[in-house]
Every structure is written in C-alpha cells, then in structure tokens.
Amino acid sequence: MRKANWLVVVLLLGSVAGCQREDKAEQVEMQQSTAMNQQELVAEGTETTDTENELIPRTELFGNPEKFRGRISPDGKSISWVAAVDGVMNIWVAPADAPENARAITSDSGRGVHLYFWAPDSKSLVYLQDKGGNENDHLYKVALESEEVVDLTPMGDDFKAQILGLSYQRPEVVTVGLNVRNTELFDIYEIDLDSGKQTLVMENPGYGDWLLDNNLVPRLGYRNLADGGLELVSVHGDNAGDVVFTIASENMMDSNVIGFDGDNRHVYLTDSSGRDKAALVKLDTETGDTSVLAESDKASIDKVFQHPITHAPIAYSVNYLKTEWYGLGTTGSEQIGDLSTAISGSLQILSSTADGKQWVVYADDPQTPGSYFVFDSEKGEARLLFNTQPALATRPLQPMQALEIEAGDGLQLVSYLTLPAGSDSDMDGIPEQPVPLALTVHGGPWARDEYGYNSWHQWLSDRGYAVLSVNYRGSSGFGKSFTNAAIGEFAGLMHRDLLDAVEWTVEQGIADKNKVAIMGGSYGGYATLIGVSHTPDTFACGVDIVGPSNLATLIESFPDYWKPWLAGTWYKFVGNPSDPAQREEMIARSAISKVNQIKVPLLIGQGENDPRVIKAESDQIVAAMEAKKLPVTYVNYPDEGHGFTRPENRLSFYAITESFLADCLGGEVEPFGDAFANSSLQVLNGQNLIAGLSDALVQEASEVEAETEE
C-alpha cells in the first residue's frame, strides 16, 4: 500500500542537488553516494591512505555508487540492490545467505533502473521507468528466475503509470493508475503479474487520487476543494459518495494519508487538525471518529513503520534537528531500543519481510555515509548488508553542525553548517577567519534539508567553502504554522529567511560577506535567480539547476495530472496566473522581472525533457540576460529531465560548477580531466566565461573525433 499522492504532487520542485537521503529517492534518483566508514575498513584489514591533502574526486561523490537501494524479498530468501552493468544502474539479486552470488536481472543500457519493488510472492520485481526524464513512467516486471522483462503498460509514451497497490492478500496482481483516457485523471486498473492482462477496475469521475484497502479494493477517493482543502470520499459499498473525512486547507501541507489497517475499516494518517504539529492518527471510516496514537511538540510525525501484514504501526520518527525513532507499544519500544543499540547513526527503516522479522535499515552520518543493514527484530541483532562507494572511507569528510538560526520575525530556522577542513582548529564551530560561503537551497519548497551525509556539503567544504543549508519558512515537517508562513512569500519572507541566515554567518565570523554564492535545484534554482536579481548585493554569484524564472509561466506549463492539486498548493501559496492581478504580482516575484539588476555571474543547468520546470524557463532568462550583455553560462542536457540522473551528466555539470565557483569564490578545483566523457552536455551560452571550459570542450571534441575515426 502506498501513501497518498498529494505529497508527491506538492513536492513539484523537489531537490536535484545531490544531497537527499535514501528515503527521499522517489523524488530524486541516484543523487546520493554512500560509503563504509574508515573504522569498518580498518577492521576488515583494508589499508587506509593519507588523503588529507588531496581533493576528494568528483567521481567518488557523484558517480555511480557501488551498490544502492538495498531491499529484502518478502519471503526473506533474497536480497536486492541496484548496481552498475557496463556503467548503467540495474537490479541485482542474490541469495540472502550468499550475497557473493549476486546476478543482474535487468540489462538496461539507457538511464538505468532505480525505483523498484518486490512483488508480494517474491517471484518477481516491478519497477517504474520513463524516457529521458519526461516522467511518463511505464511499469515493468522482471521475473526472478527467467529474468524476462515485460512492459506491463505498453500503451505508448504520452501517459503516466502509478503504482496504487501491491498486497499480500492478492499477490498475483498489481493495481495501477493510468491517465490514458484523460491526461488529468488516473483510472484504476489491475494487471495480472503472470499474464500481463489489464482489467479496468474503475474510471475516475474526478478524484485527484485513490486509497485502496488491503484487498486492492478502491475505498476512498480524494476530492479537492476550491479553497485548497481535501475530502476523503467513500467510493465503495452502500456509503459510496459519503464524505468520510475532511482535511482543511490550512492542514493540507502537514497531513498525509498512510493507508488502511488490517481490518480494512480504519485508516492511519498524519493529521494536524486541531494542532500545529501533525500527529499519527487512526480514523474509523464508518463513524468518522479519530484517535491520536503519537505526537510531538517539536516537529510533525515524519515516517511511520508498519507491520507488513497487520499494518499496525510499530514505530514512528520525528525529525527536528535530527531524526529520532520511537516505538509504539511494548514490543515496538523494545525493537526500536534494540535497533538503536545495534546500529548507530541517523536511521531509516526501508522494508521488511512479510513476517515483519527482518528489516532493511539505512544508516548514515555526516562523516559516515550510508550503510545498509538487515536487522533481526526478534534477536535484536543487525548484520551489514553492504556499503556503497567504500572509497570515500579514506577521505577526510567533515562534521555537520545542526543549528537553529532566528529569522528577523522570530521564526526558528533549522539549518545545517559544514566548515572547510582545517578552518576550525579549536573546534568551536567558528573558523579562525571568515571563509567563502556556499548557501545551498533545497527544492520543494515543501521539503526539507536533513542532518546526515550530504554530498554537496562534503564536496564544497572539500574545495574550501563553508556550506549552509537553511530550512526556510514553507519547509515541511516543522508544523503547519511554519509551512503556512510561506503563503504569498515567494521572493518575500521565504527569501528573507535565507538572507537572515547569511547575515548570521557573517555576524558570527563564519562567512566572508563579499564571497557568498547561492545555489540550488528547482525551488533552490528559483531562489538562486531571485537572489542574484532581487538582492544582487548579497551574492557574488549563483548556480541555478532547473529553476523557474517566471512563476506565471511555470504554473501554466505544469503537466495535466497536477491540475487537480493546484488549488491547495501553487494557487494558494503563489497565485493563479489566470487572474490578471495575481499574474502581475507573480511576475513581479520572479527573476524575469528584474533581469536588469543582475550584476554577478550566473550558471544555469537544464534538462531538456523536464516536465516540471520546462526548458523555456531557462531559455527566457538566458535570452533576457544575453540581450543586456550580462554574464550567464547556460548548460543543457537533451537526455535529462528534472535533475541529472546519468552519472556522466552529473559529473560534467559539477566539474563546470566547481570551476565556476573557483572563479567567483577562489576555492580549489579538480581539473576537468575526462569529466565530459560520454555526457550529452551542451554549453549553449557563455563557455568563455568559466576558466578552462572552452579548452576542455575542445579537448573532449577532439578525443571523440579520434575515437570515431578509429
């Protein structure tokens, strides 16, 4: 069973920065690398080397991990992960008791396979895959024994498939949503996993999403209200059409439906009705009564881990400065206590066997990138499943500080700071003298930065910069008052929060006020464009990845299947571009309205197939800057979407970014080398504005030509 889809929809501008943790991977695939810590390597007899004076190679930070996305089959007999086959990520499977006998069961040669799930009978796996980043996913099945790959949704390329449900009660089918009939709405189909036969279950009369019970029967439809609220409507039985529960507009961004209990009567959800921080709530769908199972006065309930058969909640997490897990009931509390003893670091519980005994757990720490473990919940013991990219274990990774920075109006902004190696000899959290600062802004904006391993923080601090990530107002998880404080504040108080945080670093003696860069992806790209255009005296340069330059044209270009959710998200927080007055205000809060104020260098990266922030958003601001002879370097990737999935493309962009920042802030640079090899990189403007870029492009072109002649 899956969570409601509106959180996927409202995270329209999710981070593409390469720093999301494993549980965020549905928004951004393969943007984090993980590694075994140095102590584990020493224990295994691996010789470490003195790398304190060497730059951490970009390939170790942003290339393909050795293994990633570990899972265990429902029957516990197999383990799986994604790893490269000829440089492209594919699914690998091994006996649980003999991981050395792993074999690749897919052989994709394009963008790779990333997001996959075990079928309930453990005989096959299913995965979603699009073309070139267009997010029009097809659903594929790969049989464990035969390794035959079948497209279960072979209806062309102009539709999107969603997995609505997999169930142990009906292991022979997968339930999907398809918007073939109407691009705005998803009809419900069942697909037989053996034959591939599709059966229409229900046409969608106008619901934004569905909730299925544990027998894969559609039980609730999500009806979006004009004020941005949501009604859960019965779509089954004698009570079809009745409103079961209402989520008010003010609660939408901090509430989420999780799924049915094992009795198919009660529904679990996180709900902020009558409170600021969302609590874990149990809803009786027949009476409408609710009961609170868990809550926190510090932050909203974040993750909920349930038993795979009974669906009873076992544990939940709260994430304020750091993630903390709490057990429910005596058994859950004992299991979480054992888990915390067995595995250190910041934890995410990712999957379990059908009997609930074996859990796959992901653990990381700022200086100890993620590891995957199998935790035996009965014995309280954990065994290492694997680490990804062990090479990072010998690298001098830097600690991260979890901070509260006070905004001008008193809001507390949870933030994360990493300092350059050697800059803080007395370990008081302040460098001996101010250093250049990279302000990295997360996407969403209804998302958040977290404590843990962060590839951008390690990369940039290794090059000599302090790195600051700020959970500005509108970030998720801190309560509805914090989220709703962002209404009408794009380019307003949301941006003021970022400026307040930068000012704090200057006042504390951390940052050199004349050497501050702003950078980010998606909403972070928008914030970058706002920074260099609306507040040009604060920043020395900016790096924008797939950021919108015009809020009005951004919303007008959204995919059709987002339209049912716009009232509660973009119209509410930003405005409706069909209203002339609102449209005018939206443009005023966009970078395109103040291009003439840009006076610092800007680097823009774009994926040509991006359906969220279409290429026209980057094209129009580059054209406006060119017309005014302003310095902008524009990089495009014709085989990418909302972020850069192919490692060759990531490596090429970060190589360019590194040289760009060095020109601006004076940090260290790893040479371009072969960073452009096999990339689809197109430098559409300003290649002469970055030191060494033109020569590197010429060199790569000559090497490609020589290989072609051979």
Task: Give an overview of the whole structure.
With 710 residues, the chain is an alpha+beta fold. The chain has 2 domains: 64-392, Methylamine Dehydrogenase, Chain H, CATH 2.130.10.120; 395-709, Alpha/Beta hydrolase fold, catalytic domain (Rossmann fold, 3-Layer(aba) Sandwich), CATH 3.40.50.1820. 19% of the residues lie in helices and 30% in strands. The chain has 14 helices and 36 strands. The strands form 8 sheets. The chain has a 9-stranded mixed β-sheet with strand order 28-29-31-30-32-33-34-35-36, sandwiched between helices. It has a 4-stranded antiparallel β-sheet with strand order 1-2-3-4, with no helix packed on it. Strand 13 and strand 14 (218-224) form a beta hairpin. It is globular, with a radius of gyration of 25 Å. The N and C termini lie far apart (53 Å). Mean pLDDT is 92; it is low at 1-12, 14-21 and 23-51.
Short summary:
The chain contains 14 helices and 36 strands.
Name its key features.
710 residues; alpha+beta; Rossmann fold; 9-stranded mixed β-sheet; 4-stranded antiparallel β-sheet; 14 helices; globular; Peptidase_S9_cat; serine protease; S9 family peptidase; hydrolase; protease
List the helices and strands and how they pair.
Blueprint: H1 6-10, H2 38-43, H3 58-62, E1 68-72, E2 78-85, E3 88-95, E4 103-104, E5 116-118, E6 124-129, E7 138-143, E8 149-151, E9 161-165, E10 173-178, E11 187-192, E12 198-202, E13 209-212, E14 218-224, E15 230-234, E16 243-247, E17 256-260, E18 266-271, E19 279-284, E20 290-294, E21 301-306, E22 313-319, E23 323-327, H4 329-342, E24 346-352, E25 358-365, E26 368-376, E27 381-387, E28 400-406, E29 412-418, E30 435-441, H5 455-462, E31 466-470, H6 480-484, H7 493-507, E32 511-521, H8 523-534, E33 541-545, H9 551-556, H10 570-573, H11 580-588, E34 602-607, H12 615-627, E35 632-637, H13 647-665, E36 682-685, H14 693-709
Parallel strand pairs: 30-31, 30-32, 32-33, 33-34, 34-35
Antiparallel strand pairs: 1-2, 2-3, 3-4, 5-6, 6-7, 7-8, 9-10, 10-11, 11-12, 13-14, 14-15, 15-16, 17-18, 18-19, 19-20, 21-22, 22-23, 24-25, 25-26, 26-27, 28-29, 29-31, 35-36
